[in-house]
Amino acid sequence: MPPTSQSCNTQVCTTYSWSIGSWGTCSNNQQTRSVVCQNSSGQTVSDGYCTTTKPATVQSCTSTTYSWQTHTWGTCSASCGGGTQTRIVQCEDNYGYVVNNWMCSGTMPPTSQSCNTQACTTYSWNIGNWGTCTNNQQTRSVICKNNNNQTVSDSYCTTTKPATVQSCTSTTYSWQTHTWGTCSASCGGGTQTRIVQCEDNYGYVVNNWMCSGIMPPTSQSCNTQACTTYSWKTGNWGTCVNGTRDRTVLCERDDGVLVSSSYCDSNTRPVSSESCISTTYSWNIGNWGTCTNNQQTRSVTCKNNNNQTVSDSYCTTTKPATVQSCNSYTYTWTTGSWGTCSGGQQTRSVSCQRSDGINVSNSYCNSGTQPATVQSCATYSWYR
Predict the structure, then answer these.
(1) Where are the beta strands (DSSP E) in 190-280?
(2) Cβ(194)–Cβ(176) below 8 Å
(3) Taking the CB of residue 276, how many other CB atoms lie within 10 A of it?
(4) Which of 198, 197, 196, 204 shows the shortest CA–CA distance to 131?
(5) Beta partners for 38?
(6) What is the CA radius of gyration of the chain?
(7) Average pLDDT estimate for 87-93
(8) What are the tens digits of pLDDT across the range 315-328?
(9) Whole-structure pTM value
(10) What percent of the chain has pLDDT over 90?
(11) 19, 33, 132, 355: least surrounded by Cβ within 10 Å?
(12) CB–CB of 378/344 below 8 Å?
């Protein structure tokens, strides 16, 4: 028998709803938004298709303000020992809309913080000292404690509980020394320490009074040798050439051996080159002094062109003599008698005489005091 019914209009029924946009910027105490009617396919249709009241497209408003809004802190990443928790921090306007962070003033509240910083509780066995050996047996206390030194149930300690009873024999005690530690200085004298403790013959540390004899030292001097020092050594300045002069700068160990510059302090390294003014040097020669014991002296010093006295080594020419032989004679003018007046003039002899009475060249006497050899004169005759 042919079917008496069949499906029809199987397509999805079309629905309509209002598509509401965001409110625009508040201007003149008013802001707008788009409100359109759309079908279930997202197509905009005539408002008449939407059967509910159309939402407002205009509303009154006031100036928009922005502020940081913080959400609740999240769960801490650790229950102890220090963890981190985060939260959402966003910039919102006074209508509750999230906006760009730059629109909020002031420092953004933190988005993460430390949490549960308290130390985690740990548990360990607290072991007492072995007691006195009695009837070949000795005991000790072994209790479980947390890191706050509180006694708790043994079940909190996860490792095997150490023995509280052991067999024993007569106990002896002796000083036990550990290895010396590192010296506090590599040279110039330092100190190193070591652990010294009284132990019984089972290796347990006991009170020091239980060991006899003097306790070995726990500290001693070490590396007492003098520290090697390094210093900069400079040579003499060289000749000034083109406004610059140089010198050697070397690093010297305290035993006089030259070493790499890296051993000396670079911050105190003297300069090896400097500006200069070309300097000339010449001999400055003084006058000969008085002749004494057939000898006379004069000063001869090397000076630069600033008239500063410097070492003779700066003057490259041969140094003039500072001492010479001489004699101790004195020289004076001696005069003879005036001769006969003739022709209105008369003459006399004038000679330079050494102090031993010998006549010498006139050049030995002072020419400025030489007596005259000629003078005017008059002749007279009887008149009858």
Answers:
(1) 190-193, 196-200, 205-206, 219-222, 230-234, 244-246, 249-253, 258-259, 273-275
(2) no
(3) 16
(4) 204
(5) 17, 44
(6) 60
(7) 94
(8) 989 999 899 888 77
(9) 0.27
(10) 52
(11) 132
(12) yes
